[in-house]
Amino acid sequence: MPVTEKEILAALSRIQDPDFHKDIVTLGFVDHIAVRDSKVGFEIVLPMPLFPVKEKMREEAAGIVKGLSGVSMVDVKMKSEVTGHAATDRAAIPGVKNIVAIGSGKGGVGKSTVSANLAVGLAKYGAKVGLVDGDIYGPTIPIMMGARTEELRQRDGRIIPIEAHGVKFMSMGFLATGNQPLIWRGPMAHKAVQESLLNVDWGPLDYLIVDMPPGTGDVHLTLVQTVALVGAVIVSTPQDVGLTISMKTFRMFEQTKVHPLGIIENMSYHICSHCGEREEIFGHGMVAQESERLKVPFLGEIPLDIAIRKYADQGMPIVIADPEAPSAKAYLEIIERLAAQISIRNYYSKPIQIIEEPEPNPKTFTV
Amino acid sequence: MTNVQHTRGTPAIIKKQGNKTLLITWEDGHVSPYSFRYLRQNCPCAGCIDEWTSAKTLNPGSIPLDLEGLKVEPVGGYGLSFSFSDQHATGIYHFDYLREICPCELCRKR
Ligand SMILES: Nc1ncnc2c1ncn2[C@@H]1O[C@H](COP(=O)(O)OP(=O)(O)O)[C@@H](O)[C@H]1O
Ligand SMILES: [Mg+2]
Ligand SMILES: [Zn+2]
Ligand SMILES: [Zn+2]
Asked: DSSP secondary structure string, A147-189?
């Protein structure tokens, strides 16, 4: 007797997804089951990119089904369909599934380096990724992406983003003319967000990473008012005393109901450029402690490693320049956790829907 | 983060009933019935509130009785904006604020 679809699903429901802590059948990941005599095929569709660790799930699924009676061969296809943030018309950019803000309390903590590596890393695993350099106090993304001299072109009145390392990016710095430092206030901030986010021909994107200016200000306010973010990530360093500065940024996101996706500790420990030994840095571990206190996921720690800077300055983020380096692996772990947090957020969050219906039987209000 | 504060200020269902009423059912089950006139009277924009003292500069009595709400739109993920029939549309109503000004009898007693 050939195996039934029901038996296959029952067997597969023994597999837990490590991020959701639910079984993959309940989560709706299993699709397209086909049985032909003793041959079984099915798909596992994940709501995030296919990171190498997901191979374990494929093997486990194949093994479990192979163990069923009446099955001689199993073919499991792993697929990725990144889920999108449920947002309504005005609060969305058409075709862009998830807008993620990367913030920090102050400058120089490595926020832009993190943004560039996250973007390039997500793209490396097959996701469609955009990157906005909103850090107008020091637009460094074009340098890190190795495309500082390109000029912006337009199509149908919309800016065509620049492409590098599989990522489409746009810098608010491109909008500035001359060398004078720009301070985006009120209407200017609004225009900058408009031009660098909404008026860009992104095409379909799984993730749009926004490198925010440090601290809190008009660009932040405009951003959270204009688009619905799937959430925000905060980058902090052990030296960021008591995290008080990052806390201000954290509170701003909280007040505007931007979901905290997690906190990253950068320059967490030191990797010696000569011997590769790991050395602790004073204050290391505080960020993890703080995120536990705040009940916000700790996404991981990135070492202080001169190679990160070297590759950034060369326009080639370390996750692709030297993927085997320990610090590139640290980034990869963070990327996996972040993608998981985003898909979990999308699984549980409901869209803000405004239902329109006719006035019920006339009723007067006394206010 | 599912604490009490969080569900209080999170809408579950938002209903625009004609041009007179906005009905919000919150995650904690509470229902807030607003008239658009009441929402207009409590507009939090810089033109209706004194920036320094937070006092109302708008005279609530000046809002016509037949004022209507023409459009309801989400703002980011945290609030709503309304276009009223008197052309006013500048206020961003944070969900926490909307909950705070709930006009239901229970809330008004507090
Ligand atoms: N983990 C790291 N190890 C070594 N240098 C780093 C690391 N992260 C960032 N940097 C370097 O620190 C400087 C500031 O980083 P940047 O990303 O521009 O900070 P921010 O955007 O927060 O101002 C850059 O020169 C960058 O190459
Ligand atoms: Mg920067
Ligand atoms: Zn107003
Ligand atoms: Zn009430």
From this structure: --S---EEETTEEEPEEETTEEEEEGGGG--SSSPP---HHHH
Instruction: Enter the tokens of residue A67.
Output: 């163990």
Complex-level ipTM beyond the 0.90 threshold: no
List the single residue in B10, B17, B79 with the smallest CB-CB distance to A357.
B17
The CATH T-level fold of domain B11-108 is NE0471 N-terminal domain-like (3.30.2020)
What is the whole-number distance in angstroms between the Cα of residue A321 and the centre of ligand 2?
20
Distance CA A188, CA A152 (A): 20
- Name the pTM for this structure: 0.85
Q: How far A35 CA lies from chain B's nearest CA (Å)?
A: 42
Report all structural domains of chain A as residue ranges with CATH numbers, in order of start.
5-80 (3.30.300.130), 96-348 (3.40.50.300)
For A346, residues 6+ apart whose C-beta sits below 8 A from its C-beta are: A47, A83, A84, A85, A86, A98, A230
- Nearest CB partner across the interface for A354, out of B1, B16, B33: B16
pLDDT digits (tens, 9 = 90+) for A52-89: 989 999 999 999 999 999 999 999 999 999 999 876 54
Tokens at residue A161, please?
Answer: 């983003």
Find out whether A43 and A71 touch, Cβ atoms under 8 Å.
no
Q: Residue A363, Cβ neighbours under 10 Å: how many?
A: 11
**CB-based neighbours (< 5 A) of ligand 2, an ion:** A 112, 135
Cβ contacts of residue B105 below 8 Å, gap of 6+?
Answer: none
CB–CB of A225 and B75 under 8 A? yes
Q: For residue A52, with 0-12 CB atoms within 10 Å meaning exposed, 13-18 middle and 19 or more buried, which class applies?
A: exposed
Distance from CA of A329 to the nearest CA of B (A): 29
Rg of chain A, C-alpha, whole Å: 23
